[in-house]
Amino acid sequence: MTKPEGFNTMSLTAAPDVFRQLADKLSNISEESFFQHLVKSLADILEVDHVAVEHVDSQQGRVTSLAEWSQGKFNKTAPYLLSGTPCQHVVNYSTYFVYSQVSQQFPDDKRLAALGVEGYWGVVMIAPDGNLLGVISLMHSSPLILPLYAEEVLRIASVLAGAELAHQLAESKTRERLLYKNQALKRIGRHNEALLNTINEQQRFQNAVVNVATAVAAENGEAFLHQLTAHMAEALSAEVGFIALLDTHNADFAHTLTLYVNGQIQDNFAYYLPGVPCHKVMVEQECIVVEGAAIMLPAESNGALSWVNGYVGRRLDNSHGQPMGLIGVMFKAPLTDVDSVRNVLQLFAARAAGELERQQDEERIRQLAFCDAGTGLPNRTAFMHHLEQVVLDPQSPNFALLLLDLNHFKEINDTAGHDLGDLVLKTVAERLVASLSRHHYLARLGGDEFVVVCPDMEAGHALALAQRLSDSIALPVVINQQSFTLSVGVGISLYPQHGSTPQALLKYADVAMYQAKRQKHAMCLFEPWMGRVVFEQLNFAKRLGKAIADKQLNLHFQPQVDLSSGQLVGAEALCRWHDEELGDVPPGKFIPIAEERGMIVALGNGVIEQACSQLAVWRAQGHSMPGQLAINIAAQQFEAEGLIANLLQSCAHFGLEAWQLSLEITESGIMVNPEKAIAMTEVLKNHGFGLAIDDFGTGYSSLAYLKRFAAAKIKIDISFVRDMLTSDNDRVIVATIIAMANTLGLETIAEGIESQAQLDALVSMGCAQGQGYYFDRPLTAERFAQRWLS
Ligand code: C2E
Ligand code: MG
Ligand code: MG
């Protein structure tokens, strides 16, 4: 099912979208430098006022700005000292976060004061060799609240920036060294004819550096590598220049990425490495063949290089030291000045490796943006993109959309853990792939939802395919010796019969899938009548989600009394929802929808908070509430993590003791996962919370379990109380429940007492407490206080 809008919609789709933005932005580098581009993109994506990338010289304790973006424009900050700035903390701790008032915390930092910075987050920039190079800082003029994906964005940014800066520093160092060498050589050369040749070599070296520098500014990506190779061959007067990449699947093979022969670009080819000089490069980092290289060259070059003599190759490693490929030059003549060629090649190798790695990083970002990491399938973003194209494509006049949602997958996740759940999903993905042909497009929409686009497919075939997919999933999945039996609900919509836009088609497939699940069928083809019914439900769920988020639900309170004395012994908090459009909606209607749509935990947390807050309000008004306030807890809440922490937190916040609350969990809720429920009831009891089993008699719990629950109270279900005076059967049930509870030492409370006769019968059977319209209806907090609290 698509999650209702307005309700936790960010988590699944937003993060990949952000990576796509980052990838787009960073691959379109124009006149601005890489760092300028980076700061601007980060400010934009993370919505912060200022972003700075700075080089840190930790020995001298100095910080130099590489680029700074501040409220819509580039800013210049003069170099400053590290001490007394948040940067120093970043350097010390790798990352440093200040939510607000950072300027006050670092009164000596002039920039913070000048920009009026409140919130700050910095991370270090590390060179590929692990050395600290600098800091990326996010600064904001108000307290810093960042989206969840900020951390991953910043991590990737810091890796990219670290690699870039390391290259820039290495280049400028080489340039400095060259300049110095060159001057020295010139001085000596004036007196030594023999060195003239070497000076020319050095000149060539220097030209090469300039070439590299200009190439960096001019181009990016593939074109950059072509240009680099051409420059390299030219700078070394080599007839051949090339870059080759290792095959990602088979390290015995390499592919040329770019190959220049006599200034002409050649077709790329793949070649077998063992036995050729390039292989030695991969093993030993470098290979030099002074003469006669031609006979060792790969056969795949088809004799086109039969005239080659000299060969120099160098391995290209990424920043983790893993080989990515190699770069090299070849000469018609035998090599004479080996050192000079090696030096120049090394320089080009550094630049090429940097660029290749950047391309690989970008590829990774793209993967993150468009690929679902768990299954390797295209994700929702990629799918929507694909669907848009299919709808526009005149070649595909009709197609079917199949939406698959696993049944009860959440239970696997909850009981077996998320890691195992992920493996199950991966297996499901593999089975789906195996049942589809290459014309079908399969994607994972998120969670346990998959979708297939089937070109040129009519209703009959779509249903048959759905059956095949459902069958493929029905075989047990065995992981780590655990076996899982899965089933799926498939909804099908057809283009163009059912809808003409991607959004409509997806919605209709969702509607059909929902219908399949309701009817407990494996699949369902969309039919127009479904639209109205299910849209009403979707609308309902959407409004409910919003009401929960906006805290528009409130509580009524129903007294619980001692049957013999009529004294108040507690109250039950019951949730109420009034919606502008739908009017008063009874909990019997909205609670099941909240459970079905995964909103019950949020709803329940709101109830806990309100109930505690109300007890505090009554206390402040001088009312004393005898006994416990009972709160209904749904099975999913009981299973979710954080229930106890939430309860304790609310109690602490409103100054309450645990014993003031009692939790009602239904018998059927407990039976969803009795062992876990038993453990949970123990924990709750140890914290001092009261516990009652609600709707008792309807959930088939065995006596064996009942003994083990740490419940103090059993609530006899309303249906037995209602009919006990007319049905002997129900009367016997009520009597048995009460007798059984008494032997187990549990209290009993009867729900739904409406008459004196029911009351008398219950008292005679030994029931101690009761609740029902006979005493009072659920009341607003004010009415309840007026009528029941002293
Ligand atoms: P429940 O917990 O068994 O609550 C008792 C229900 O019986 C309440 O219905 C109450 O108004 C009703 N009732 C009480 N006395 C009488 C009576 O004498 N005659 C009749 N005919 N009904 C009586 P309500 O408020 O409509 O709640 C229905 C169910 O909704 C609750 O059953 C409970 O399962 C669920 N619910 C209500 N609030 C919450 C909540 O905050 N969280 C959760 N998880 N469920 C809730
Ligand atoms: Mg209840
Ligand atoms: Mg009940």
UniProtKB/TrEMBL annotation:
<dbReference type="InterPro" id="IPR043128">
    <property type="entry name" value="Rev_trsase/Diguanyl_cyclase"/>
</dbReference>
<dbReference type="InterPro" id="IPR029787">
    <property type="entry name" value="Nucleotide_cyclase"/>
</dbReference>
<dbReference type="Pfam" id="PF00563">
    <property type="entry name" value="EAL"/>
</dbReference>
<feature type="domain" description="GGDEF">
    <location>
        <begin position="397"/>
        <end position="528"/>
    </location>
</feature>
<dbReference type="InterPro" id="IPR001633">
    <property type="entry name" value="EAL_dom"/>
</dbReference>
<dbReference type="Pfam" id="PF00990">
    <property type="entry name" value="GGDEF"/>
</dbReference>
<dbReference type="InterPro" id="IPR035919">
    <property type="entry name" value="EAL_sf"/>
</dbReference>
<dbReference type="InterPro" id="IPR000160">
    <property type="entry name" value="GGDEF_dom"/>
</dbReference>
<dbReference type="Pfam" id="PF01590">
    <property type="entry name" value="GAF"/>
</dbReference>
<dbReference type="InterPro" id="IPR050706">
    <property type="entry name" value="Cyclic-di-GMP_PDE-like"/>
</dbReference>
<dbReference type="InterPro" id="IPR029016">
    <property type="entry name" value="GAF-like_dom_sf"/>
</dbReference>
<dbReference type="GO" id="GO:0071111">
    <property type="term" value="F:cyclic-guanylate-specific phosphodiesterase activity"/>
</dbReference>
<feature type="domain" description="EAL">
    <location>
        <begin position="537"/>
        <end position="790"/>
    </location>
</feature>
<dbReference type="InterPro" id="IPR003018">
    <property type="entry name" value="GAF"/>
</dbReference>
<protein>
    <recommendedName>
        <fullName>Bifunctional diguanylate cyclase/phosphodiesterase</fullName>
    </recommendedName>
</protein>
